[in-house]
Amino acid sequence: QPGHKWNFGAGPAMIPRPVLERAQSEFLNYQSTGLSLMELSHRSQPYEDLNNKAQAQLRQLLKVPENYKIVFMQGGGHTQFAAVVYNLVAWRHHQNGAKGDWREIPVDYVVTGSWSAKAAEEAKRLGANTRVVCDAKKSLGAYTGIPAESTWATSDPQGALRQADTASNQKPAYLYYCDNETVNGVEFPFVPSLHDPSVPLVCDMSSNILSRPVDISKFGVIYAGAQKNIGPAGVSVVIIREDLLQTSELKDGLPAVALMMDYKTMVKNNSLYNTPPMFAIYISSLVFDWLLDADAQRVQDGNAALYPHSSFVGVEAAQARNERKAAKLYKALEESRFYRIVVQDKAARSKMNIPFRISAVPKGSDAVADKKKDEEMEAAFVAQAEAKGLLQLAGHRSVGGIRASIYNAMTEEGVDVLIAYLKEFESQY
Ligand code: PMP
Prior knowledge:
Elements: E1 6-7, H1 17-26, H2 45-62, E2 68-73, H3 76-95, E3 106-111, H4 114-125, E4 129-135, H5 136-140, E5 175-178, E6 180-181, E7 186-187, E8 201-204, E9 221-225, E10 236-241, H6 263-268, H7 278-292, H8 294-300, H9 314-335, E11 339-341, E12 353-358, H10 371-387, E13 390-391, E14 402-405, H11 412-427
Parallel strand pairs: 1-13, 3-4, 3-5, 5-8, 8-9
Antiparallel strand pairs: 2-10, 6-7, 9-10, 11-12, 12-14
The chain binds 4'-deoxy-4'-aminopyridoxal-5'-phosphate.
């Protein structure tokens, strides 16, 4: 329809229209309190109920086992880069009998894109014994895939190190990776499984949480900033295995965990240690409602009866739709002689963020590309898209190019409109 806007932004990203409409209708009078939710005390019953409901919804959507806690924290993904280090080094230190220098405890990072690289840098900056056990840029030349797990320098299931140059006879505090690299468009098609199982897996799922089912029991900590596939910026969801909350008190040079980053403090206070980002949690809860509502999901699917009501599961419905959307977009890009998909490793292509470039030199030709001219065409692509209501298609400022982000909220129709535009733009050249 003329005037309709399609938001392909990577984050803050599109929020489902029915969620925004419901928020608008409840804005001035939250649940007959006569106040907006933002004006209520975070200690009030309506807010406490909302806090508990949002956690229960997320537990239901992701089938979070009983021995995992769910908390809402502030400070976005970047705060979690640090929180993970403090909390889990303190846990490992406790496991070690609170003996030894915490700086010797290794923390292992799989780096497959700019966010995991940044997380590893933060660990190093905080003084942790940071080991990059896989560096995709080094082994592939760029962040265009995921090196085979058997090549990582992690400890094997017997606890022996695979590569001598990472020597340390201590068990690492954790093995960290980012499930979906938002900037680079690289997504894990598997959960790492070849490492020492007593080393907890820590995963940044900021840009693909709730896009597909996950076996939570394989993880120690999962976190996600809300502003991509959940709701507004301001809240992060953290899912933590209960036993990892056993940490040492300040001893032997171990830095104290700032209370606002302390998982134990958050769990103990049910995410109400201080004033939480209530509005962000409220909108997130409306998104969870929307995902759990079979009728709403059917509308999202263009009213196609794709699953019987009795067998409806929100995340599976989203996954099926996300796979259809990504498959058709990659296919359109692949069939074109004009567009270039950035991620070479097909199995590792993200279903959420799809970066691509333009090249005037047709695929297969040995003519030399004119980089400047290609970049001008990319800028024209983004500008003309904006004029047609296809918004926020520019690639991340660190890499340039074009990026289409197609999270849960993006309909299949939106992807069809983008594909039609791809063809139209290409035909001009
Ligand atoms: N991790 C991932 C995968 C991200 O996409 C982002 C943000 N784009 C971050 C971490 C950082 O999040 P924040 O801006 O909330 O600190």
